[in-house]
Amino acid sequence: MTVTVTAATATDTPLDFGDPADLDQLRRRFRAWLAEHPLPERGADEPLPVFLHRWHRQLHSGGWVGLDVPQAYGGQGLSTLHQVAISDELGACQAPGIPRIGYLAHALLEFGSEEQCRRWLPRMLSGEDTWCQGFSEPGAGSDLAGMATTATRQDGHYLVRGQKLWTSYAQFSGLCLLLARTERADPATDPSARPHDSISAFALPLDRAGVTVRPLRAANGDDEFCELFLDDVRIEESERIGAEGTGWPLAMTTVSYERNALDTGHISRYGVLVERLRRSARDRRGELPDGLLSEIGRCYVDYQVLVAHTRRRTAERLAGRTAGPESSYDKLLMTRTEQRLYETALRVFPGEFFGEGESSGGGPLFGDYLYSRAASVYGGTSQIQRNIIAKRVLGLPSAG
Amino acid sequence: MQAEEFMLVRDLVRTFATRFRVESADPDPSHRAAAQKALGELGLAELRGSTPPDATVQECALLAEEHGSRPLTTSLLGTVLLAPELLRLIGDQMSPDQVSPEAGPSQTIALAADLRFPGPAGTDLVAWDCEGADRALHVAPDGTVTSLALGPAVPSADLLRGIRSVPPDSPAVTLGRLDADRLMHWQAYALTLLSSELVGAARSFVGQSVDYARERRQYGRAIGSFQAVQHLLADATVLVEACTSATRYAAWCLDHEPPAQALTAARVAKAEVNASALDAVSIGMQVFGGIAQTWEHVAHLYLRRILLGSTTLATTADLLTTLAEPEPVR
Ligand SMILES: Cc1cc2nc3c(=O)[nH]c(=O)nc-3n(C[C@H](O)[C@H](O)[C@H](O)COP(=O)(O)OP(=O)(O)OC[C@H]3O[C@@H](n4cnc5c(N)ncnc54)[C@H](O)[C@@H]3O)c2cc1C
Predict the structure, then answer these.
(1) Rounded distance between C-alpha atoms, residue B25 and residue B5, angstroms
(2) A-B C-beta contacts closer than 8 Å
(3) Please, which of A382, B16, B131, B214 could form a disulfide with B162 given CB 3.0 to 4.6 Å?
(4) Does the beta-carbon distance from B6 to A14 stay under 8 Å?
(5) Contacts of B318 (CB under 8 A, 6+ apart)
(6) DSSP one-letter string for A155-210
(7) Chain centroid offset of residue B169 CA
(8) For a pocket test of ligand 1, which of A204, A248, A377 has the largest count of ligand atoms closer than 8 A to its C-beta?
């Protein structure tokens, strides 16, 4: 029997897990800056996204956002590792992570024109523009290519009609990275036509006439996602990103960065809670049942494996590999880490889950626990990640 | 090593593993000695013999992965990679007059009878992964290293990996004592290389089950086209990738970080491998169906190696309770 090792899983040469030489210096500079510009107080009634936006502006004013974006577009022209190091530092002092814009920035960098990058990237990094992602629809979730929203071309512009769903933070955003169908693929005339090939991507300013944003309350009580109604909304041709029909590859690039542990900034958040659990294990030695102690150890292992995995991905990226279907590994490992972590925290700190007073209807950790249930849904469900690994990494055959 | 030089060595081990892999659970007795002799001729025991060592720990870990990828009776870990590293660490090759001439210089390592890291002198010990070895090195919890003579073979659930008894009256020759840092390096090294061999086994077996899923047909289609099978194999793949990231990082830490940090990374890697390599191989067996439940099929050789490996040096319970608390500040 032959053993095939696909290129994607070939790992038989040494990798450099190390930090670039200047990283220590960057970390020290950042710590010094942070000491002088600490996390601001959150206002009593201030919604979380508004608070995070203030924090984003503050980080940007120090030059700490978009470290891996070219200088011409408002970044610092450094590597992903540099941005990850900042994320790490923030996690270590329990501050919220860097704004999660990496995946949007990469989509623009890869598919946008020079002019569009100059127009949108600096304002995205600075927080002057807040972007949201209008991909999913009521009838097109996992099966994204089945979307029904159309963009019909008319005298040098488009008219967009349709509905988006689950658009996170649209109510706080100025722009939306929107996917819509520019042309119906007609399998009757073109047998090779796939529904994917007629999708295009746009930058839609949300204050355009015909756009209605309706917030939906999430299970944890947060105002995270929205419905977006698009009623003959005019979009200029200059607002189309990439050529007509390249919306699908752009979307796939976006989601693969979104699934990549490196780019999402979740890891530092996990690290903070894992260390809390471990300190509690030490301080309550003899009190916690052995089974729970093992669970805490297991959470630490999950977390450290994720850190190691991220470093490996970074090393591979620096060696020239872009985010591809293997980012589905990252997504599944992040989900594993996050869900076990909150399940364990629930048992170690029950008082912080079942107390009262938060919008979630429970204690301060309860909302985060509920959000951990969404980890296996957003960014493509765990089942979809497995489909991707089976088909695109392992090359297993389709049914039929 | 230079990249080209490493790839050459790796390919030597790969060729060796393909040539000497066993096809069944009952290899011809003469096979064991011939295979070990051939492995010895590759000269890998000297890879880390010089100061500084020619090969990095990560390079050795990759060789251990290659060795693990096939069912082999040979001892790469015990005699070729672990014992020589220990001898390097005590900085003291045994002088010939210390060892009785019939014992010979070929060493493996001694573990507790349950295969965990051993207790102090006088506790029950076995010589682990001992194919081709005449003596075993015992590292006591205080770092004292002694060399012990071996008794007869001991039966083991891992049918391929050689284990021999260490008679309680075996004369012990003290070789030296590891300081605290070297002791941590030693434990981290042993945990990391064993984990690497087990990852190699899991990766290879999962790869074989993926290939089988493409070929085997039921209901008129390849079983790999059923989503239930696809999801099993995707999960096994993610588990193998998690193990790979953890062990490779632990190996890199041994090359670049202080020993305490390397030991934590090695414990993390072993804990991940103990659980995930075993799950991955179990999934692979499920995909093979009935054929993998036979004595003739290689599946149980992989399962036995990983099952026993997952309790060797440190069990999941040992590791998770240690890792549950922050490292004491030194
Ligand atoms: C917190 C949160 C934030 C989000 N933010 C955004 C956002 O900002 N922008 C955006 O565009 N979208 C966003 N989403 C939407 C998200 O991408 C979708 O929810 C997700 O892709 C799943 O789609 P669905 O909800 O329609 O579920 P469905 O696709 O209907 O899936 C239902 C169930 O069926 C399973 N299933 C479906 N197809 C298959 C298949 N082929 N094989 C096996 N199982 C299958 C799924 O795994 C799932 O368990 C967000 C979602 C959440 C929860």
Answers:
(1) 34
(2) 168
(3) B131
(4) yes
(5) B116
(6) TTEEEEEEEEEEEETGGG-SEEEEEEESS---TTT-TT--GGGGEEEEEEETTSTT
(7) 28
(8) A377
Instruction: Give CA–CA dist A174/A180, Å, rounded.
Output: 18
pLDDT digits (tens, 9 = 90+) for A297-347: 999 999 999 999 988 988 887 777 666 788 899 999 999 999 999 999 999
Q: Look up the CATH number of the domain holding residue B234.
A: 1.20.140.10
CA-based nearest residue in chain B for residue A328: B238
Residues A389, A304 within the same domain:
yes
Cβ of residue B210 closer than 8 Å to a chain A Cβ: yes
- Whether residue B216 has pLDDT greater than 90: yes
Structure tokens at A30: 């950042």
Asked if residues B287 and B273 have their Cβ atoms less than 8 Å apart, the reply is no
Domain count, chain A: 3
- pLDDT for the residue A6: 39
In a domain, A111, yes or no: no
Q: For a pocket test of ligand 1, which of A178, A381, A382, A392 has the largest count of ligand atoms closer than 8 A to its C-beta?
A: A381
State how far Cα A272 lies from the chain centre: 19
Digit-coded pLDDT (tens) for B112-153: 999 999 999 889 999 999 999 999 999 999 999 999 999 999
Positions of A annotated as catalytic residues are 258
**DSSP 8-state symbol, B209:** H
Cβ distance B249 to A312 less than 8 Å, yes or no, reads: yes
Average pLDDT value for residue range A254-281: 83
Maximal C-alpha separation, chain A: 75
Q: What is the DSSP letter of A44?
A: T
Q: What is the mean pLDDT of residues B247-254?
A: 98
At position B284, the amino acid (one-letter code) is G
Res B162 pLDDT > 90: yes
Out of B3, B203, B211, whose CB is closest to A13?
B3
The span from the CA of B210 to the CA of A395, in Å, is 9
> For the whole prediction, is pTM greater than 0.90?
yes
B296 assigned to some structural domain? yes
Q: Sign of the C-alpha dihedral, residues B10, B12, B14, B20?
A: negative
A window 45-64, beta carbon within 8 A of B: none
Asked whether residue A277 falls in the same domain as residue A240, the answer is: no
Place of tokens 């206002």: A43
Per-residue pLDDT at A383? 98
Does residue A270 sit in the same domain as residue A384? yes
Question: Computed over its alpha carbons, how large is the radius of gyration of chain B?
Answer: 20
Any atom of ligand 1 within 6 Å of the Cβ of A383: yes
Q: How far is CA A35 from CA A24, A90, A91, A92, A93, in A?
A: 17, 12, 15, 13, 11
Do A302 and A205 share a structural domain?
no
- Between chains, do B211 and A282 touch, taking CB under 8 Å as contact? no
Question: Which two three-digit tokens encode residue A147?
Answer: 């979307």
* Residues in chain B within 8 Å Cβ distance of A326: 241
Q: Report ipTM for this prediction.
A: 0.95
User: Does any domain span residue A122?
Assistant: no
| Total number of domains constituting chain B | 1
CA-closest candidate to residue B325, choices A280, A304, A212: A280
> What are A188-229's pLDDT values in tens digits?
677 777 888 999 999 999 999 999 999 999 888 888 889 999
Q: Strand, helix or coil at B94?
A: coil
User: Would you call B20 helix, strand, or coil by DSSP?
Assistant: helix
Rounded to whole angstroms, the Cα distance separating B109 from B148 reads 9
For chain A, strand residue ranges (E) read 131-134, 150-154, 157-168, 175-181, 199-205, 211-215, 225-236, 240-241
Q: Which domain range does residue A293 map to?
A: 260-393
